[in-house]
Amino acid sequence: MLVDLTLAKPPLPKFVGSALSQTLVEISAMPNIGELLPDHRYDGAPSDKEAGAKWLAQRFQGDLPIDRIIVTNGTKSAVLALLLLLGSSGDIIATEELSSLKVWGIPELLKMRHVGIACDEHGIIPDAFQDQCVRDAPKVLFIVPTLNNPETYTTPRTRRLEIADIARKFSVTIIEDDICGWLKTEAPPAIASLAPDTTWFVSGLAKCVGAGLRVGYIVAPDAQKAQHFVSRMKSLSGWHPSPVMAEVATRWINDGTAERIGLEVRAELAVRHQCAASTFANFNIRFDPEGLFTWLPITGSRSEAEVVRLLRDQDIVVRSVAAYGGRQGTEPHAFRICVGAATDVKELQGSLSKVADAISV
Questions:
Q1: Domain 3-13+258-360's class?
Q2: Start and end of every Aminotransferase class I/classII large domain (predicted)?
Q3: Structural domain spans, the chain
């Protein structure tokens, strides 16, 4: 069986199937179930937004007004829609030096220029961001400061404030991707909570509750900007939430199922990271026990391409972090290993052992 260690998905508990079955039975018994099909849900029903505010509460300081919330069909389409709204062809989009935005290919799709900002173990270096603003005048900063993909760090509160101050000084709009933020128990507040005036926040359920639950949330800087987003982007239905999926997500948040799944995912990730730490004991790996990824440096004589081919012949898929960007010729030699991708810990252990063997030569 193929084990794809590039897939950023959470390891789900066994009860998820029965929980989904029960919820779909409940939805099928709705007296107005026919209303789920004739119309779009657009930016979400009020009940969806209230559930979103409840789910995101731990990432914000205080209550989150629902008139700032836009419900979407996931974070990638939300980011695409936001860049369409906030930028234009030829604009510069800044990110961390290694960024999932590079893998998604969105800047190229929109004919925008992508530049990476130097980072350290805490994320974007403020002085490097300021220098980039002076030199290139980016329009937008796309940032993943909590359980970063692919580098696994979480940016501390003080640095978040520094980054927000620089963005404000140079009129740079921040898009904060917090898709894994719920998993981090001691995470600093979202940048959007610390600096709502300059930040659009995106998150969702895919990395905490299930990759197939394509429901996401945008939090706009204020209600007026949320309304502007919807009025400008309403005709582009690619970001609209599926009514049935939105109904499942809202019910699961309200009845506690989403939290129950998320807590099980968090606990299982800790077990899987222990497995990775044991298997890669002789390598300088980096991980957060509540995150989805392990950063695995490549130090052997084989090239990354050789390792990828060797493992693919053994039905294991890995990908170099070079796909996430970096300066030409200075890309780090490492793999981003997604510990949630395997069916169980036994399968993960077997796959990681083969990876360790492949990079030890």
A1: alpha beta
A2: 42-349
A3: 3-13+258-360, 39-255
